[in-house]
Design goal:
Elements (H helix, E strand, L loop, with lengths): L1 H14 L1 E5 L2 E7 L6 E6 L2 E7 L9 H12 L8 E5 L5 H9 L4 E5 L3 H10 L7 E5 L3 H6 L6 E6 L14 H10 E13 L4 H11 L4 E6 L1 H4 L5 E8 L5 H9 L6 E4 H7 L24
Parallel strand pairs: 5-6, 5-8, 6-7, 8-9
Antiparallel strand pairs: 1-2, 2-3, 3-4, 9-11, 10-11, 10-12
Helix pairs in contact: 2-3, 2-9
Length: 289
């Protein structure tokens, strides 16, 4: 039995792909439960999970929450035009292509070496209308035509932190410019106690958008642990009831805050400007254990 376990470990190590990319050491680790699924790690921090046989499968909890937003961005199956700021292993772009065929997508991923690695090892469906640009997220967003996007998704991390220039009101001004009337903005945010970054991000979005919702683990919202929260913003009423139902039914149930409760959650935090913006907090080491 000992020899069999050793053989399995050696096989797993041989199948793992390790390569230096612009953002650090990338690892593509095979999922032992799903034959053609892989997890992407950068410097040990989990970034993405992709199932090539089932691109509609979202393993990471924050990606499932973003998937709910994608599902509710338009009637089921209707193609949309989407911009993804941050690409990773292109999980959400693959999900949208699978669930909304004929959609047109632009992915902005600064790490050109990572894009090459992902394209080589986890190839995209050649029929998917996904264009990938290797440039800074804000620079790539500036090239999106006015009113082009039905959906803008921000999931940008450098060294496990969101860069400061993607946290400001001026950044959101450009998001609004790129969005079509009625378009949705969704952002993956990460924070822990005392939640100063998260509160500031909500205040910033509230200063630019008429409607907001926040989807997160209750323990994160209570400031009990570091974790992800998905912020959703637009200028028309959000499908809060359906988003709440979906978030509550996830394997790791989440809570949805909106309206007065979300405004109160900010605790009087001020909107963030370019001049005052800082990177999001460093996750504690325990997050990746």
């Amino acid at each position: 039995m000992g020899k069999s376990r050793s053989t399995r470990r050696e096989r797993a190590a041989a199948e793992t792909v390790v390569e230096d990319v612009d953002g650090g050491r990338a690892e593509l680790i095979p999922d032992r439960d799903r034959p053609r699924a892989w997890s992407l790690l950068i410097d040990g921090a989990p970034q993405s999970h992709v199932d090539l046989d089932d691109p509609a499968h979202l393993s990471f909890e924050y990606q499932r929450r973003l998937g709910h937003v994608i599902d509710l961005a338009a009637p089921p199956g209707r193609p949309v035009r989407a911009v993804h700021l941050g690409g990773g292993a292109l999980t959400l772009a693959r999900y949208l292509a699978a669930t909304r065929p004929r959609s047109t997508q632009q992915v902005v991923e600064r790490d050109a070496a990572l894009v090459q690695l992902v394209r080589r090892e986890l190839p995209l469906d050649p029929g998917a209308r996904i264009r990938v640009r290797s440039t800074d997220a804000r620079a790539g967003l500036a090239k999106v035509p006015d009113g082009w996007a039905d959906l803008v998704v921000a999931d940008v991390f450098s060294g496990a932190r969101t860069p400061a220039h993607l946290t400001s009101g001026e950044f959101l001004d450009d998001v609004r410019r790129a969005l079509a009337p009625g378009g949705l903005y969704a952002a993956n945010l990460a924070d822990g106690p005392p939640l100063a970054h998260l509160r500031g991000q909500i205040a910033t979005a509230a200063d630019r958008f008429a409607e907001l919702a926040l989807v997160a683990d209750p323990a994160v919202l209570r400031g009990k642990r570091f974790g992800n929260a998905v912020l959703v913003a637009c200028d028309h009423p959000l499908p809060v009831a359906e988003l709440t139902r979906r978030a509550a039914s996830d394997p790791q149930p989440a809570r949805v805050e909106h309206g007065r409760a979300l405004a109160d959650f900010t605790g009087g935090a001020a909107p963030v400007t370019d001049a005052a913006a800082v990177d999001s907090p460093v996750p504690p080491p325990s997050v990746f254990r």
